[in-house]
Amino acid sequence: MKNGNMPNLIKILPPNISNQIAAGEVVQRPASVVKELIENAIDAKATHIQLNIKDGGKTLIQVIDNGTGMNEEDALISFERHATSKIKTSEDLFHLTTMGFRGEALASIAAIAHVEMKTKQENQELGTLVEMEGNVCKNKTPTACEKGTSISVKNLFYNVPARRNFLKTEQIENNHILEEFIRTALINNDIAFTYYNNGKLIHKLDKQNLKKRIIDLFGKAYNERLLPIEEEIDAVKISGFIIKAEYVKKNKSEQYFFVNNRYMRNTYLANSIDRAYQGLIQEKTYPAFFIHLNVNPENIDVNIHPTKTEIKFLDDKVIYAVLYAAAKKSLGQFTLINQLDFSLDSSFEFTPLKKGEMPTMPRTNFNPDYNPFEKETTNNISYHKQEDIFEDKGVNILTIEENFNTNYSNNNPEVIQFLNKYIITKTKNNILIINQERASQRILYDKFSSMDFADISCQQLLFPYNHFFSPTHTTQLLELLPDIRKYGFAIEYQNDGSFNITATPNEMNSDDAQIILEDLLFELNQTNFNSPSPKSQKIALTMAKRLSIKEGKQLQDEEMLGIVGQLFSSSSCEISPFGKKIIHKLDIEEINNIFG
Question: Where in the chain is the domain with CATH 3.30.1370.100?
Answer without folding.
Answer: 376-596
